[in-house]
Protein: phosphoribosyl-ATP diphosphatase
Organism: Pelagibacter ubique
Amino acid sequence: MNIFDDLIKLARERKSEPVEGSYTNKLLSDKSLSKAKVLEEIDELIEAVEKDTNKIHEAADVFYHLIMYLEANNIKVEDVMAELDKRKK
Ligand SMILES: N=c1c2ncn([C@@H]3O[C@H](COP(=O)(O)OP(=O)(O)OP(=O)(O)O)[C@@H](O)[C@H]3O)c2ncn1[C@@H]1O[C@H](COP(=O)(O)O)[C@@H](O)[C@H]1O
């Protein structure tokens, strides 16, 4: 199982069984926080690329926060993957 699948599973587990103090739960239950974090993390990634520092760390933050943002808004990552798959030429 890849880490994307693990994070999707984690999001759904946290939704159905919230854990006290979980940052993931905070993102999943607060759409405006989730939106703000995606925007902030994308900004940080772009800055990291431009400065050529910390790119992997910042890209990982973007993926994690984007997955939680999609889940918070009931957008299934599987549907996004299927859409990308349909675009294959
Ligand atoms: N993959 C992540 C993950 N990536 C990033 N983050 C958090 O995202 C936040 C990033 O926000 P900020 O940039 O504001 O924080 P920061 O202190 O500046 O951190 P960095 O920029 O240095 O990452 C930090 O609090 C990170 O800990 C994550 N928090 C959780 N996970 C996964 O979620 C799992 C469950 O965690 P809970 O959130 O505790 O349920 C963990 O085991 C991980 O697998």
Observations:
- The pocket of phosphoribosyl ATP is lined by residues 10, 14, 19, 22-24, 61, 64 (CB under 6 Å).
- DSSP finds five helices and no strands in the chain.
- The CA atoms of residues 81 and 87 lie 10 Å apart.
- Residues 31-51 form the longest helix (21 residues).
